Amino acid sequence: MTGQPEAASARSGGAVSWGAIKAYFPHTKPATYLLALPEYGIVYVKNPKVGSSTLLVWLDGLHTGEYDTEFTNVHDEHRLPRLREVGRARMVRMLAGDAYRFSFVRNPLDRFESVYWDKMVRKRLNWRPQLSAALGLQGEPGSGAHFESFLAAVERQDPIEEMDPHWRPQHVNLMHPLVTYDHVGRVETFAADLDRICAEADLPRVPIEVRNASRLGDRESLYDGRPDLVHRVESLYATDFELYGY
């Protein structure tokens, strides 16, 4: 599925409200994805599989002034202000323009293959058995057939109601067109974009540690020799390609 989210009246770029925000996250807590530092006047909207672990560690250091904390899972353990501390009304105002708003995106082809290897193949994660059963996947994890089966299952899902944020279209995760961003960086130019964000938002410089970076390495891409799969992923994420210039 491609295109804009359903329920256009709630997600059509009108005034930002908590109800409109929730419409993008009907089965999860929006607070998981909305990270604000009111003392610096910034809001980061988390986009999974797009450098979010690195950004959370960086934001945690910015907030606490502690740069050597070891996190087992920074998504659960970060010390950023929670929504209950910021308040819904303040978060809405910040997302509506009372703060510097930023996020990052990634080439949809790379992101989709990365989430497949990460969530469906790597045995240290608990996702694979649950997702394989839920999506009705066939084949051996890591094989071309299994990847194609995963793609077919995702193609059948509704972006809002069924897709997991890790493989949802990025424009949905970023609440397009409801929220307008001061800067949307790219993973491919991460350092330069983060420098720009720091300069534009007048943020102090803190150390940055790249975490959970997914690289293909010597492994062959599952797209190799399969232009049909490339075309299907491009169709699935057509709006992302258009909006973010990939």
Structure in a nutshell:
The protein is an alpha/beta fold and 246 residues long. It is 43% helix and 7% strand. It is built from 12 helices and 4 strands.
Could you walk me through the main structural features you see in this protein, from its secondary elements to its overall organization?
By secondary structure, the protein is of the alpha/beta class. The protein has one domain. It has helices spanning 18-22, 52-64, 74-77, 83-86, 88-98, 108-121, 127-135, 144-155, 170-173, 190-201, 227-236, 238-244; strands spanning 34-37, 42-45, 100-105, 183-186. It has a 4-stranded mixed beta sheet, with helices on both faces. Strand 1 (34-37) and strand 2 form a beta hairpin. The protein is globular, with a radius of gyration of 18 Å. The model is unreliable at 1-12 (pLDDT under 50).
